[in-house]
Specification:
Elements: H1 7-44, H2 50-69, H3 71-88, H4 92-109, H5 112-128, H6 132-149, H7 152-176
């Protein structure tokens, strides 16, 4: 291993700092792309606006490029964006598969908070579609992820959703009797 001294060492450190900055900037921009995509998809839900659909499509394209370069870091985000887009297209089977792929990918990469987000979004998807028992399963997973992550605010929010879903499950069971 070669060690640098003086000006060479300073140059080497500066290159490493710039490289690290570049990497962090790209991670930040891809994260912003993911948030922008999810926000566009949420705005699009219930509306048929071309602009929101276009933004979501652009974000998915950007995330697809990122995932091609760093599978472990971006595949879960790509799958989540695709799941949300598929849910808008009423592609039920593919949406569920993409939510599950996002959850699995986030788990494999150790992104417990992103696993929780994918579980949460899957829970809302099932709740919107009347599959309240399935929604409860996903919300329970999200609750566990957020608890492990240490976010009491998200734990409380998901607990509220679990309580609401449980009311729906109970009323569904009462109707069946």
């Amino acid at each position: 291993m070669e060690f640098y001294h003086g000006k060479e060492a300073e140059d080497e450190v500066m290159v490493m700092i710039l490289l690290l900055f570049y990497i962090l900037l790209n991670l930040y921009l891809f994260s912003i792309s993911n948030v922008t995509g999810l926000n566009s998809i949420d705005k699009y839900r219930g509306k048929n606006t071309f602009k929101c659909r276009e933004i979501a499509g652009n974000c998915i394209s950007t995330m697809r490029e990122a995932a091609a370069n760093s599978d472990w870091n971006f595949t879960n985000k790509l799958c989540l964006l695709e799941a949300e887009q598929q849910s808008l297209s009423y592609d039920h089977c593919q949406a569920i598969a993409s939510y599950d792929a996002s959850i699995t990918s986030a788990r494999k990469s150790g992104f417990i908070h992103e696993q929780g987000l994918a579980c949460e979004k899957a829970g809302f998807y099932h709740k919107r579609n009347g599959a309240v028992c399935k929604a409860a399963e996903y919300f329970k997973q999200a609750h566990e992820c957020y608890e492990e992550w240490g976010s009491s605010m998200k734990v409380d929010f998901i607990q509220g959703e679990l309580n609401n879903v449980q009311i729906l499950v109970n009323s569904e069971l009462a109707r069946e009797r």
